[in-house]
């Protein structure tokens, strides 16, 4: 339990430093996007390549990823059903709401949680690959159709193929599967760059919190509350139940349930902002689930962690 508290202290400490940076005006407005861009295009790909190339393929192909994927699909379906019953939305808003319910923040917060709480980022890295390679093209294809673009699927697949996170993850995965050893002279700078990924994304997230207000009138409160409730209160116990049903061991159950408790990914907001669909709804869902997920993860660690 002390390890969990230490992990949260580290994560919240860096986020807090980012927030104070924004309050002090050291970084203003969109200047924080420099941190995001460097992390996205350089540091995070380096980190994921390093994590995956030295991972055990059995962990990469573990049932944890299958279970969390099934849970994500189920909660997305639950959101769609809830939206049909309680509030009507167009295709783009429904897609983004369903995505907000099950697309976990496996990058910005998932990696720190994996490193400091699960003790191994290898459990989260393949989930990032799954989300970016499988989920993202589908989401972008649907959003492209809302623009009247009949070539949405082709555009989405092209974007996914050129994503540096995908390229680095696939290359690392291949190295692990083929047991290829990367020369130290090449691996050392990659590892140094990778260590910068988590601090940069947490700092940027902290800076972005300055001045943000959630659940303002006209922001789609029902959709936000439904998506947030499903993400924080439904997906973790559902994942735990699936783990029990398929007979996963206690450690795998702990890992899968913890991953399911991660908040909605900021990537979903990026998609909403890019296509200008349900931006406020997704932003508020990311904001609420980010903080609501922390006590949930602590509770899961207390109940399920294996000494």
From TrEMBL:
Entry superkingdom: Bacteria
BP GO terms, sorted: transmembrane transport
Residue intervals passing through the bilayer: 6-27, 59-81, 123-143, 164-186, 192-211, 223-248, 254-273, 285-304
Membrane topology: Multi-pass membrane protein
Protein localization: Membrane
One GO CC term, this protein: membrane
Pfam families, alphabetized: Mem_trans
Primary localisation category: membrane
Keywords: Cell membrane, Membrane, Transmembrane, Transmembrane helix, Transport
Keyword Secreted: no
Identification of the protein by name: AEC family transporter
